[in-house]
Specification:
Largest sheet of chain A: 2 strands, antiparallel
Number of strands of chain A: 2
Structural class of chain A: mainly alpha
Strand content of chain A: under 5%
Helix content of chain B: 55-70%
Strand order of the largest sheet of chain A: 1-2
Order of helices and strands of chain A: HHHHHHHHEEH
Strand content of chain B: under 5%
Shape of chain A: globular
Radius of gyration of chain B: 24 Å
Helix content of chain A: 55-70%
Oligomer: heterodimer
Number of strands of chain B: 0
Largest sheet of chain B: none
Number of helices of chain A: 9
Largest interface: A-B, 49 and 50 residues
Radius of gyration of chain A: 19 Å
Structural class of chain B: mainly alpha
Number of helices of chain B: 12
Distance between the termini of chain B: 20 Å
């Protein structure tokens, strides 16, 4: 494992990226970053932008914290972490406002809330403070993508069943003009677009994941 | 006066931090196994919310808003510092949390023993920063016009969060005794329970917030009696107008 010269893409490094997809998923296993995972999943487009923003912030935040890890006094580390996160989120927010204004309007406060996204603090505390920049970057990337996968799955079901679209493309005909499936009486399930269904879908995803991956089952 | 009452009810039940916006979910799920600790965290969140949201309101109003620095110097009227919102808000939240922790530790060790372990967690609770960001958004849109509105919002949204976590903790304490499917145990069933609770809280959306605020309207039945005149047709028209205006009014109220 601990070769003197570890390759950039050695086995342990690859594991850092792939682990969060299943065994160590930030949302369904570590229970981090749930607030935004639920709120932005009405449309896949928003969920995609959100996942991308979080991935960028976690990956680069991890790198910065990792570079500073020997300089940060232990007592004030939380505030340092918050400042690093806030600075990166401001950059992301400004970029979104410039190039994707509609999405940024729809995400509203949730872009700002990336700062207090528990994934950030969790990874900064648990990984970046004790590891070198490159593994930290991969860890941030993996966790951001693991978070993104859950976001996309939730958004897929909510958008497909709730408004009959994926990424804004009408898959089963237009509900306004009554074409496609709507002509024969299909009706969108508007309840999917409301808050409670997001929670229930995440619950079901956890059920499926733990049904397949038995070692994640909790004791009590 | 009723606008305060409206904001109070609205941010406590209808726009509940947890059930409508999913804010503060991480600690909500993690610390809801026991009612006593859930209550402690709920009180701590309310406390910090009441401190930080008004403070952030003042900062936004007098420093960050476009043209807010006019009070300092007329030449600064065009300055727009709103891009610094996130960093200043989170800094004030973190500072207040630290201060509250130190003050409580010094003056009330018993309270510190109950709240102490939760206070550092609150700095990264989305409900706190989310409350400040919603406040900023609603001040921009003119929903909250003064300090009193913001204070009411801060208090009631904190209480709403506390109610939500205590309710969930109570359900989870009971659920210890039930036989849940193994893959759903723990996190999965908690999510689904929260979803069902959110459906329950959606019923508060039907509350007519302007019910107290309405001026007593002339009863529709009495209108024709007072205005009986030889010309019958116009009377029916005016009656229709009255009915229509009532309808329009009630529609606005529901929104």
């Amino acid at each position: 494992m601990s070769d003197k010269k570890e390759g950039l893409f050695s086995k342990s490094n690859i594991k850092l990226v792939t682990n969060p997809f299943n065994d160590d998923n930030p949302v369904t296993v570590q229970v981090l970053g749930i607030c935004s995972a639920l709120a932005v999943t009405v449309q896949m487009k928003n969920a995609f932008v959100m996942a991308l923003s979080v991935t960028v912030v976690v990956a680069f935040g991890n790198v910065i914290i990792s570079l500073l890890r020997n300089l940060i006094p232990n007592r004030i580390r939380i505030i340092v972490q918050l400042v690093v996160a806030a600075a990166l989120v401001i950059c992301v927010d400004q970029v979104l406002k410039a190039y994707a204004y509609d999405v940024s309007k729809q995400l509203s406060v949730f872009v700002g809330l990336i700062i207090t996204n528990c994934i950030l603090m969790g990874r900064f505390e648990a990984f970046a403070l004790g590891n070198k920049p490159w593994p930290s970057f991969l860890d941030g990337l993996g966790n951001g993508l693991g978070y993104g996968i859950i976001l996309m799955i939730v958004a897929f079901f909510r958008e497909l069943l709730g408004s009959g679209k994926l990424f804004g493309i009408e898959l089963i005909g237009s509900s306004v003009e009554k074409t496609g499936a709507y002509a024969s009486g299909y009706v969108n399930n508007g309840f999917m677009l409301l808050a409670p269904m997001a929670l229930i879908i995440v619950g079901l995803i956890i059920w499926v994941q733990r049904g397949i991956n038995k070692k994640l089952i909790e004791k009590n | 006066m009723f606008e305060y009452f409206n904001i109070f009810l609205k941010s406590m039940f209808i726009e509940n931090m947890v059930f409508a916006y999913f804010l503060g979910m991480c600690s909500y799920l993690a610390i809801s196994k026991k009612v006593s600790s859930a209550l402690g965290l709920g009180i701590a969140v309310t406390f910090v919310q009441v401190m930080t949201v008004p403070l952030n309101y003042l900062m936004y109003e007098y420093i960050l808003k476009p043209g807010a620095l006019q009070w300092l110097d007329p030449t600064m009227a065009e300055l727009d510092l709103s891009f610094l919102t996130f960093i200043l808000f989170i800094a004030s939240v973190a500072t207040i949390v630290q201060l509250v922790e130190m003050i409580v530790e010094k003056f009330s060790p018993s309270l510190y023993n109950t709240l102490g372990i939760f206070l550092p967690l609150i700095a990264v609770n989305c409900a706190i920063l989310g409350g400040s960001l919603f406040m900023q958004q609603r001040v921009d849109s003119g929903t909250y016009a003064n300090f009193g509105h913001v204070l009411t919002f801060a208090f009631s949204s904190g209480i709403g969060w506390a109610i939500a976590i205590v309710l969930l903790a109570a359900i989870r304490e009971k659920m210890e005794y039930s036989n849940v499917l193994p893959p759903l145990r723990g996190l999965g069933i908690t999510f689904i329970t929260t979803g069902l609770m959110a459906i329950g809280f959606m019923s508060f959306g039907g509350v007519d917030l302007n019910a107290f605020n309405k001026k007593p309207q002339p009863k529709v039945d009495e209108v024709p009696v007072t205005t009986v005149t030889p010309e019958i047709v116009p009377v029916v028209d005016s009656l229709q107008v009255v009915v229509d205006s009532v309808k329009v009014d009630s529609n606005q109220v529901v929104k």
